[in-house]
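Can't attach files on this board, so I'm pasting raw text. These are the components:
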Amino acid sequence: MIDLKHLREDPEHYKKGAARKHARVDIDRVVELDARKRELMTKRESLKAEQNTLSKESGPKIGQLAGRIKKAVGAEASRLQAEMDELKAGPARLKSEIEGLESELAGLEPELEKLLLMIPQPPDPDVPDGPGSEGNVEIRRWSPPGFDPSKPFAGQKGFVAKSHTELGEVHGLMDFERGVKLSGSRSYVLTGDGFRLHQAVLRYAFDQIVAQGFTPVSAPSIVREKAMVGTGFFPAGREQTYEVGIHEANDAGERAWEADGYLTGTGEVGLMGFHMDEILDEDDLPIKLCTLSPCYRREAGAAGKDTAGLYRVHYFEKVEQVVICKADEGESRQWHRKMITYVESLLQSLNLPYRLLQCCAGDLGQKNADMIDVECWMPSRGEVDKDGVPAGDWGETHSASRLYDFQCRRLNLRYRAGGANGKGATTFCHSLNNTVLASPRFLIPLIEMNQNADGSITIPEVLRPYMNGQERIG
RNA sequence: GGAGAGGUGGCGGAGCGGUUGAACGCGCCGGAUUCGAAAUCCGGUAUGGCCUUCGGGUCAUCGGGGGUUCGAAUCCCCCCCUCUCCGCCA
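---
Top answer:
Structure tokens for the assembled complex are below.
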């Protein structure tokens, strides 16, 4: 949610922001509706004030009269009744006027509300413009000694890389056929060491981020609509989300469907929704939370894209981190950089080549002011040559977002300056979130980069404690 | 799933159609007293919106949303949540 007051003062800022994100929202209409709404409110309130004054004045009198009317008879009763009717007439006249204004207000509020929820957070000035993910700009890259992603895999390793799906089949790590049988497209089954490696790397990442001072939180992954709207995933991302609910027969005896929950596509929803509608103490900030949660995504609109393998699936598990901090741009930016360094050290400890991308305005979601993606090198991706050997390519594994107070406004998540007993004003917090590790997508670089000439897979040293000391697969 | 009870300020707890934005108690803040503290006494102590000549004014909010009424914390309807008992169950 953007700051309506700020939009009123500087609508151009939000128009430009929306244009940079290629979002179509009618800012002028918002300004118009807002102005009209305030005009109506001011009128209604002064009428209400008048009505309240009158009511306070005549109220007790009406009460007394009512009592006397009960006891009175004949002409006395009708005289008192007339007196009471006159007293009632004053506030009653105001009532119809107020009702008129209120019905007009009720008419425009849903439209205003709907538009407000769709206005994107403007990208920061230092975020480059661009059409979409193809406009993202590489910031830096890292590779372990002895491997350079810009050179062919075979030339460096002495053998042609197998894809994770090939390796998976050889070692019985995953089963796509049965996954589809069970669950349809983009489904998979992890088996044997595949499942173990999946759990090992998630648990390793989880332990690493907990060691960085993040509080582990296991929050629900079926949430109410309010949490989806609050975290900024609804209404825009509704078609990406699975609904859960109960089938009941309606009055006509038909099977009626009512959604009463939504499967979250990221642990971010549970972590940020955790403090929804709260006023935190300034002393308690920053709040650093992490989770390991199931993630469900419809992948609507991605038909035909990345259909093979573990890259784009409907269900996965993810270790996620969020930071809720003071409304200070400097602090916010500092946490953004810090979260990325956690990921970098994680990837370095696993010896996986990666690069950082500054996402361009066109690739930012509605809620982000800034986003840094991390991509790992995946030998099975990229263009395929005449011998059928893929060139390898970067694939997104992480995404770190900086949101200012956009999300906390929606969540109504504030803090009070001056600590627990302080008398300071309340302010919306800033929020940030980042992937720590998402699997099974992460198994792609993990398996493919650790494969050996004989087809075996070396388990990185840091993961061995999570694999009962096992050093290799195959 | 069945039956019942209930949701009021930071907390406890009154009120159940009109000077109630809400008694009283606790907590918290400021002051007095004190060498200092405890105790005591006095005062203060919600959030959000709109307007503002920046002094303030005003509206809304007693789980949420509608309704009745000149007037609703109080009456009616729908929803959400909590608790108790029974049933079922990883």
